[in-house]
Amino acid sequence: MSHAIFHFHDELNFFLPRRHKHGTIEHAFDWRASVKDMIESLGVPHAEVELIVVNGNAVDFSYVVLPDDQIDVYSQYDTVDMCDKIRLRPPLPAAPAFVLDQHLGRLAAYLRMMGFDTLYRNDYHDEELARISHDENRVLLTRDVGLLKRSLVIYGYYVRATHREQQLVEITRRFNLPAAAAPFKHCMKCNGLLDPVAKAAILDRLPDGTAQYYDEFHRCQSCQRIYWKGPHFQKMQQLVEQVLFDKP
Length: 248
Prior knowledge:
The chain is α/β, with parallel strands linked by helices. The protein has helices at about 35-40, 105-115, 125-135, 145-150, 165-175, 200, 210-215, 230-245; strands spanning about 1-10, 25-30, 50-55, 55-60, 70-75, 100, 120, 140, 155-160, 195, 215-220, 225-230.
């Protein structure tokens, strides 16, 4: 029986069993396997791994683990300052796009509110989520670790928080979203883009009294939903400022 030592760093400890929460695992094996397969067998999805260093040298997912290897696994590419680092996937654009599983509907609305292209349906199957994430270069956000282990998934993240607003803070920090945010650009219901619309063009669609107090309106290009800066908008604006700009 051969052994390799795995050292998991930073956020990746989240996925380890309680007895391994210190981040170091002596892994016994008697088969030939890639480092990707061994990492996932220990509970960590490949989609959250950005850098692997074996015996002081960076490797990609295809590296075959050898006896006595010392393997360091990182969640952030920039964590380690070393020469000849290997990127396991292309860097994301400054304004990443997302696709979310059925458990994260409110988070999807919040990400749209902040101006990020975010796909969500409560009837997406796992296969469809993985395919969309892969084909459209979207970050797959999920509460299902198994989904992030699907080979098609290139960009993915397991949402740790359970409270909706804490989830938004978590994703904002993990993907450095403040610099790319464009609040109130997308429809919170369907993800369509919002355009200004003249009040006269939508008078017949406004609730009683709304036209009397508001003059600026936006309409979704896709679902035609109407938006205006009513009391609910003020609450959303406050949330945006709290999350993006660390305002109390």
